[in-house]
Amino acid sequence: MSMKNVSMIDISEKPHIKRTATAVGKIILTKNTINILREGKIKKGDPLVVGKVAAINAIKMTPQLIPLCHQIPITNIEFETEIEDTSITTKVTVTTIAQTGVEMEALVGVSTFLNVIWDMTKYLEKDEQGQYPHTKITDIEVIEKKKIEI
User: Which helix (H) or strand (E) is 12 found in, with range?
Assistant: First the structure.
């Protein structure tokens, strides 16, 4: 495929409307890691707080990370996190008033949040060979997108 085929989509004729996208994803961890996280004893600090801040930064940087995404104003970001015995699930909803949607921003937010948890808990997840036999990031998907006339 030729590079001549690469271009941003022209959205100049599209109206500015309120748009939201919600993405979800999960990280699988050992029960021991989850227990240490719940006790607030992760060496680097609270992965849920750091993950949220990192996700907010990443969402705002999506056009720099994914080259053909448009720069759009982010008007709101909401997080929901559920901790289970061997996993953490996060849901990120991103809102804008723009000419294009925020699906990629929501996906980048979820991915970044989960990557931060991995980074901050990896010392607990490694086996004797330095591998991660139980740790997995999975089920990242957009579960809803909305357009709301303003």
Answer: none
